[in-house]
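Cast an eye over this sequence plus tokens and explain the fold to me:
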Amino acid sequence: MNQSYSTFFKVDQSPEEVFAAINNVRGWWSEEIEGTTDELGEFKYHHQDIHRCTIQITELVPDKKVSWHITDNYFNFVEDKKEWTDTNIVFEIDKKDGKTEVRFTHVGLVPAYECYSVCTDSWGIYINGSLRDLITKGKGQPNQSEQIANKHGIANS
């Protein structure tokens, strides 16, 4: 059984619009991204000293799929600082019943991980909230890591 975290939502916008929004990572996840997020290659994410990671964009299938591979990761709030290292993040875009379905899966982010509750809560907020808003309203809410960290009692060291 696949225990990796997954979530999805449907919107009225086209697969083209959804694909563009996913690749605008600064628009829905964080403005503190270094590198290019809409072509194959690498970008870096960080939030203070709480979380940082290096992400390799491994697959870009226009209007269908985006895949990322986490090559390096650091968390300051769990014992295994590298919990996300070598996991994959997959966005799948599909036309269903006249709507566009967006399915997000963090392959390898499993309940056994110490960060699971914080990470799944965060992805839920960023994917079902911020990314969905970027697609449907043209504006997401990136940089919510502060509120999420506070909610989970994670302090910047």
User: Anything to note?
Assistant: The chain has a mean pLDDT of 95. Helices lie at 15-23, 25-28, 116-137, 145-151. The chain has one domain: 4-152.
